[in-house]
Specification:
heterodimer; A: alpha/beta; Rossmann fold; 6-stranded mixed beta sheet; 27 helices; B: 1 helix
């Protein structure tokens, strides 16, 4: 950011469309969603005004008031007061107001005008307001507030030229407040009166489509039926739609292996390329279509406004475990990845509630666990991918993680004691909107690229090292089991096996679990490599899928290695274990203490191990081993 | 061991060694940059 550029800040209530406007003005692709609290940190970018002058633009987290107590609102308040150490006081503030909800949104605008910074009001979502029957009068609003008002429709890019013109020099003068500064009652009365003048409501209120939909989606019984149905459909789609692209990736993998085998003589380098790189990395990359589908559906829920409804539905349930519906949004985000979920807890006012939410967020099954589940779940049913049964098991996995999170949250909340200051959950339910396809697709591509990048760097590296560990030191023998036991992995497995055997795993599975502490997805690649070794001398022309190989594996006494009990035990381990060091680092930063980050890591790992042990032993009693 | 797979062994070992060096350099450089599977806009980097 150049120091000479003027600094413009976008401020306003949560879900006013600030980030959509930010993206439209700067060409960025920051995450947007139709629910409050998507932005919890300051985003920066550069834009140009109508005269081509470069301006630095910052997107502040949404705030209902400049007195807000949650960490994200404190960031916005500090920047606007010029008290942020890293960001200077803005030269101008663009107040983004939702035209369909002017009464509430005007309050923050009035507070910002009181700060005596030049202000331009971007009256967003004029289309939504007009559809709701409101008669908008931007000129009147401008006259009342004493600042320029530009009607815009940020998602369609309408009104941006006028907004850029309003940001030309000289900036508008600081207006005289027409209410008593610092007096909340006076500010509130002025806001209500102004909203009434500038956005006249129709005489009779007719139910909008959102109202009609909410009658079903927020119904105490039907709402839950719909929620469960939507989640089931999501998992069913992930299983069903991804089959074709997965076949393409598999064919590509086979073609690449065939190419290398045809071009190179037998030897270590060829094995490294075919088994380590193509086999190991390919077994993870094959799940890319499912990852993309998961993010697409999450994007749809975020963009349409359903995410806020899910939080609303959960509020009563959350209250029973000592959390509010506000905590559910970060938890929902954690289904994609725990890190943005942990970051999103900044919207929670109560420090204790925030701490508890951070602690349990990694139990919401993130996308990195998906490849592991996708490998193991079909093994339970002994069938191919797809089908309602598998979708049901998938749903159960997510429900189990979520329920455990709630139980632990309740216990922890009880231990931490009540808040000094009582907070209330206030959630704005935005009208349903058509998804912003452009951002959803770009976000999905972005996430897909991140997944591939991870596969091409960290996972590739681990696969190479694992190949070496399963190959060296070499033993001149024809018995594959003897050869493996001589290698580094064979020796590690021998040490691990007595520890993991009560959980139903052999040494190789234990080793694969160990490798996945670097990244969960690595487990799939590690299993592919570790269990390929035994099969190396068999018909190499027929490369069975990892799943088929695993299903065929046996203990020395002939029992199936991956019995239903062992597969369930593995699933339980992956549902509960925190195998993500970046999450630990972010938790430590957000809580301000490594004690919480490391404590959470140890607690979740021990919990996963104990749960896995109990589940296996109980399943064994029922004859599933 | 034939001459052909002898060079392959050395080449494979060189790849493994390079990987170890790459991990060591990466560890030194990384300053809690965040999970690559997370949102890049999460501000964790």
């Amino acid at each position: 950011m150049e120091a000479s550029n003027d600094l413009i800040a976008l401020a306003g209530n949560p879900n006013a469309g600030k980030t959509t406007l930010f993206n439209a003005l700067t060409g960025s692709i920051e995450k947007v969603g139709n629910y409050p609290g998507v932005t919890v940190s300051v985003k920066r970018g550069e834009m140009r005004n109508a005269h081509g002058k470069a301006l630095d633009l910052i997107d502040l987290p949404g705030s209902y008031s400049l007195d807000g107590g949650s960490p994200d609102q404190q960031i916005a308040r500090d920047v606007l007061h010029g008290e942020n150490a890293k960001i200077p006081k803005p030269d101008l503030v663009v107040c983004v107001l939702d035209a369909s909800n002017l009464e509430r949104h005007l309050q923050i605008a009035l507070e910002i005008i009181e700060l005596e910074i030049p202000v331009v009001v971007a009256l967003n979502m004029v289309d939504v307001a007009e559809k709701a029957g409101l008669r908008l009068d931007p000129v009147k609003l401008s006259g009342e507030l004493g600042v320029p008002v530009v009607p815009i429709q940020a998602d369609k890019g309408k009104g941006l030229v006028e907004l850029r013109q309003a940001l030309g020099h000289p900036f508008p003068p600081v207006p005289e407040a027409a209410w008593e500064k610092g007096n909340e009652a006076s500010r509130r009365a002025f806001g209500l009166q102004t909203a009434d003048l500038a956005a006249r409501r129709p005489e009779a209120h007719s139910a909008t489509i959102s109202d009609k939909l909410d009658r079903i989606l927020l119904h105490p019984v039907l709402g839950w039926v719909c929620f469960t149905g939507i989640m089931f459909a999501l998992f069913w789609s992930i299983f069903s739609f991804a089959g074709i692209p997965m076949g393409w990736i598999e064919s590509l993998q086979d073609w690449a292996t065939g190419l290398v085998e045809g071009a190179m003589a037998e030897g270590d380098l060829r094995d490294l390329i075919t088994q380590g790189i193509i086999g190991g990395v390919g077994s993870v990359v094959i799940f890319l279509p499912q990852i993309l589908l998961l993010f697409f559906f999450i994007g749809l829920m975020e963009s349409s406004g359903y995410m806020a409804r899910a939080a609303f539905l959960m509020d009563g349930f959350m209250a029973k475990v000592g959390l509010s519906g506000k905590a559910f949004l970060p938890l929902l985000s954690s289904y994609a990845c725990a890190i943005p979920g942990v970051m999103a807890t900044r919207t929670i006012d109560s420090p204790k509630e925030r701490l508890v939410t951070i602690f349990v967020a990694p139990w919401m099954s993130c996308s990195a666990r998906l490849p592991v589940y996708l490998l193991l779940v079909p093994m339970l049913l002994g069938g191919s991918e797809g089908g309602a049964k598998q979708a049901l098991i998938f749903l159960s996995i997510y429900v189990l993680g979520t329920l455990t999170a709630f139980i632990v949250a309740k216990i922890l909340r009880g231990k931490l004691g009540p808040d000094e200051v009582k907070t209330h959950f206030l959630l704005e339910l935005p009208p349903y909107r058509f998804p912003q396809w452009k951002y959803i697709f770009r976000h999905v591509l972005d996430r897909g690229w991140a997944f591939l990048k991870n596969a091409g760097t960290v996972i590739l590296g681990i696969m190479i090292l694992l190949w070496a560990a399963t190959t060296y030191p070499k033993l001149d023998s024809d018995d594959p089991a003897e050869v493996l036991s001589h290698t580094i992995v064979g020796r590690i497995s021998a040490v691990i096996e007595p520890i993991v055997k009560p959980m139903g795993f052999d040494g190789r599975t234990g080793t694969a679990i160990l490798t996945s502490f670097a990244a969960r997805e690595v487990f799939v690649g590690s299993m592919a490599q570790l269990f390929h070794v035994d099969e190396a001398d068999e018909d190499s022309e027929t490369r069975n899928s990892i799943r088929e190989q695993l299903t065929a594996e046996t203990w020395p006494d002939g029992r199936k290695l991956f019995s239903p009990a062992a597969v369930i035990s593995l699933l339980i381990f992956y549902i509960y274990a925190l195998q993500c060091l970046p999450t630990t680092a972010v938790v430590a930063r957000e809580t301000g203490s490594w004690k919480w980050g490391i404590g959470q890591f140890i607690f979740m790992t021990v919990f996963a191990g104990v749960a896995s042990l109990i589940v296996y032993q109980v399943a064994k009693l029922f004859g599933l081993a | 061991m034939t001459e052909a797979n002898d060079w392959q062994t050395w080449a494979a070992l060189a790849v493994v060694a390079l990987t170890i060096v790459a991990f060591a350099v990466r560890k030194k450089r990384s300053k809690s940059k965040g999970c690559s599977s997370c949102d890049k806009d999460s501000g964790c980097s």
